[in-house]
Amino acid sequence: MRHTPHFLMTDVDEVKRLVDGNPWATIVSHTSTGLVASHYPFLLEDSTDDGLVLVSHVGRPDEQAHELGQHEVLVVVQGPHGYVSPAWYPPEQFVPTWNHVTAHLWGTPEILSDDENFRVLGELVDHFERVMPSPVSLRVDEETARRMAKGTVGIRIRVTRFDARAKLSQNKAPEVVDRIIAGLRGDGPYASPALADEMARAHGLEER
Description:
Layout: H1 12-21, E1 24-31, E2 34-41, E3 43-44, E4 53-59, H2 62-65, E5 73-84, E6 97-107, E7 109-111, H3 114-129, H4 142-149, E8 152-158, E9 161-167, H5 174-185, H6 193-202
Antiparallel strand pairs: 1-2, 1-5, 3-4, 4-8, 5-6, 6-9, 7-8
Helix pairs in contact: 5-6
């Protein structure tokens, strides 16, 4: 990402919050045949230290395409983002921008055993089903679920480094920030309540 020190997000807990709230991520590998990218849901795994540990799975034969386990991969997590119109700025400020919350995470995947993979698949389903009125579980038909799980390869990525940005108009005056948030909360073509919430949180305006 572009080097923007004043937008850096260095707090591991904030990166964890980003991953938890935006689990659909892009995994990129620089393989012997070139760049490969795929998209899968990731969950945070509890760690004994303060590090970041991700778990997911890929559908076969993506594990071969990515050469998983043979080298480092990049996982890109994209949070709320959106266009910021200069219509929300003072007249003399006429250059638009794009606000976003994004993290790049690096690590070498570990291939999970079949049993671990099935456990992680179950946790993925349970994680997303928990908000449903009648949650569905792989335990409904474990035999069939285990058979289908053979078409996937589970992975664990212990993040060795990350580069994260929360570009949320921190360089703007408070009254301009208020106007941007109001615009994002409105009903115009660039409305984005989720981005407005992130901006309000970053500027300490949640209670206003």
